[in-house]
């Protein structure tokens, strides 16, 4: 594993940057922060826990590590360090298809921990149906439990900060799971962009449940359920793809309402504190994914750093739930429906969005 040699400022620009003017990048965090909590008191907190149920599976808590490419650019432990720490803290782990570590190695490390969460793999559309299917089969054989198909990146977003920095991947940070792809022109990428038809083909044959990542429109949530998706991830790719797209905190309530509980629902983007996680649960997500805070911690101190970052987030969530009078994550959405939760959003608006 070769550590990135292009310099800290450059990889930080790659990690921290967003698309274009980074308006959505700022908004992703600000939208969670704008929501004001309205706690209930004297509710009794005995037996409090963070466990949650996702697709009939009980998980230690509702936090996943988001798929992030090229983690060898951040730390020599790369995806292995991240996965081991996630497993130890009971967090779900989603392996990017642009990983520098073979997926079989990650599965072996992650699945060895009895206290682990869920192990998923992520893929972009790999230009042909057969290539996608082969990737999913390999992941299933390795022990991955579900797959995440990223839909908001048919082409690469224009990231000014990253471009200005001159960031390039160091030699040796190649893709460990897929053959090096030739550079595609924009026209080639547009021609190969998948449709619901390709998705239906893949879902029918996939050995793993297929979650759809990058859904922001309520109507796409309805289509996802009709096509047999395994679940939905409300995401704008950490604001790295399309600038001025709406923040995920603002997209979530309408998607949750349109989904109506048909598919399990996750959200990511700008979640930084336990209070943010709790707000996401209250707005209808069953669990969340966290990206940059985990990546920063990996860069700073490898697996130990990731474990510390996840520990803090979990402690913050526990504290926030207790102070809002909630004993388990599943109660957050009920509290929001009952109008108990948010001070600034009118009760009727919440009810109509979540019912
Ligand atoms: C450095 C970096 C690399 C990423 N690589 C991928 C990827 O390979 N596949 C993918 O679906 N999303 C990728 N994402 C997006 C994340 O999965 C996630 O949607 C986003 O980071 C969540 O926002 P947050 O960073 O504000 O928590 C990446 C994000 C970052 C920061």
Taken as a percent bin, the fraction of beta residues is 5-15%
Instruction: Examine the coordinates and then state which fold CATH places here, giving the name of the CATH topology.
Output: TIM Barrel
CATH class: Alpha Beta
Q: Main β-sheet, in a few words?
A: 8 strands, parallel, barrel
**Tally of DSSP β-strands:** 10
Residue-averaged pLDDT, rounded? 94
* Bound heterogens, unique: flavin mononucleotide
Kindly describe this structure.
The protein has helices spanning 8-16, 23-34, 78-88, 103-111, 129-142, 160-165, 186-192, 196-205, 218-226, 248-259, 274-282, 292-323, 331-337, 347-354; strands at residues 52-54, 57-59, 63-65, 92-95, 119-123, 146-150, 210-215, 231-234, 265-268, 287-290. The chain is of the alpha/beta class and 355 residues long. It has one domain (8-354): Alpha-Beta Barrel (TIM Barrel). The strands form two sheets. The protein has an eight-stranded parallel beta barrel, surrounded by seven helices. Strands 1-2 form a two-stranded antiparallel sheet. Helix 9 (218-226) crosses helix 10 and helix 10 crosses helix 14 (347-354). The chain binds flavin mononucleotide. Flavin mononucleotide is lined by residues 15, 28, 66-69, 96, 98, 122, 150, 213, 235, 237-238, 240, 268-271, 290-292, 295. Residues 15, 28, 66-69, 96, 98, 122, 150, 213, 235, 237-238, 240, 268-271, 290-292, 295 line the site of flavin mononucleotide.
